Automatic annotation (TrEMBL):
Pfam families: YjbR. This is MmcQ/YjbR family DNA-binding protein.
Amino acid sequence: MNYEQFNDFCSKLPATTYVMQWGNSHVWKVGGKVFAIGGWSKDKKPAFTFKTSSRNYDFLHDLEGYIPAPYFANRGMKWIQQVDASGRLDDDLKYYLTESYQIVAAGLSKVKRKELGIDIDTN
């Protein structure tokens, strides 16, 4: 996946906003809260950072093509960075970006979700 494909995918999730910040990273938010970042790779290849469940964090953090996300994971947050830009993990990345979106959206207040038209089951 390249950044254009990443931005296209994230733009199709409900009530998202985009901003370029943090060293020209592609940052996607829902309700003002970050759920995905495109950028920050050490080798200038595309890299994608997302929030994940504890279970998926435990699964991904040592898996080839993924690393604990710089700046997030070392602060105890469950964020992963996909560093394999070959395209073989694109379908997985879409799943994890959607999961990240849902985790972050579920953390918004009920009022904020209603205001944004987001229907997420938080039970």
